Amino acid sequence: MSEDADALRARFLAELDRAETAEAVEAVRVAALGKSGAVTALLKSLGGLAPDERIRVAPVFQALRDALANAVEQKKGVLAAAALEARLAAERLDMSLPVPPEPLGSIHPISRVMDELAEIFADLGFAVAEGPEIEDDWHNFTALNIPPEHPARAMHDTFYIGGDGAGRVLRTHTSPVQIRTMTGGRPPIRIIAPGRVYRSDSDATHTPMFHQVEGLVIDRDTHMGQLRWTLETFVKAFFGVDDVVLRLRPSFFPFTEPSVEVDVGCSWEGGRLQIGGSGSWLEILGAGMVHPKVIANCGLDPAAWQGFAFGCGIDRLAMLKYGMTDLRAFFDADLRWLRHHGFGALDVPTLSGGIGA
Fold first, then answer.
1. Angle between the 314-322 and 224-239 helix axes, to the nearest 10 degrees?
2. Mean pLDDT, the chain, whole residue set
């Protein structure tokens, strides 16, 4: 029996040595170790041997099986390495071939401006807060000190939802996010709240759905000087100009006291608006100190906490910065407009690289 094992070993090793393809190696494996292979037949014959004989030859047969199995794997590895080497030697990459075209998608100017705002105010220590677009009357109006007779509550200005008396509306500003932030946490608070808002209005500079960003700071010693510095820093970074002059005009908002309209100095060169200087003025946002009633409505003590808030239209900021004249084009889904005004998907605004770069 052991003589048969030696003969099989020599035979199959010789066949493996002569094999030059993976198919030839597989044929040797099947002939030796397959279900009907010669080595398999030897192993099956152990059951018919006497116990003493079985003990003597079983290790020989098992060693033969293991040796041939290892030899098959080694031969497969040698052939695979040779095939890879031949493939690498034959393959060539033509560097003169044209590169694939750039993706057609782009970042909408509104999304771009939102990213710019987040970058600027994050550097000033502001977090970005969000809230639902379908709001209840208390968060959208009452908590903000907007009385029942205020024109903002009128049907011709506000989209009311349902007739079940629940007082749900499509939010008319992102100020409810400020309310939710104050009722859901404790001061100090420093947030901006960008997002979609809805009002019943439509012309070249107004759409039923538009975008707004509001800012809120609540602390113990907040004052108007900090508000002015924050807005000046924001305008300088956003428009990329250092010669920024702000003018604060007294105004009225139910949720701030005192309230101001903020104008930025500008000029007209060649029929195009340029931010900077003080040759002319352009209103860009509203702001003021948070009304003590609003602070109290949120469960805070207005004697201990005070703050300032500001808000402006993101769509209008985009129009001013990137020279767009009609707000309605923002929502027309015109691919030509999007290709012209859109931004690259990987073009992320940074303060170090320039917000408007």
1. 50
2. 86
Same domain, 60 and 178: no
pLDDT at residue 166, rounded to an integer: 61
CA distance 15 to 6: 14
Cα 174 vs. chain centroid, distance in angstroms? 21
Kindly state whether residues 83 and 119 are assigned to the same domain.
Answer: no
Residue recorded with tokens 């510095």: 229
pTM, to two decimals = 0.66
**Tally of domains in the chain:** 2
Count of residues making up the chain: 357
Mind listing the pLDDT tens digit for each residue in 34-93? 888 888 888 888 788 888 888 888 888 888 888 888 988 998 999 899 988 988 888 887
Give the bridge partners for 251, in sequence order: 259
- Cα torsion at 289, 293, 294, 298 (round to 10°)? 130
Asked if 327 and 210 touch (Cβ cutoff 8 Å), the reply is yes
Coil, helix or strand at residue 1: coil
d(CA 184, CA 145): 19
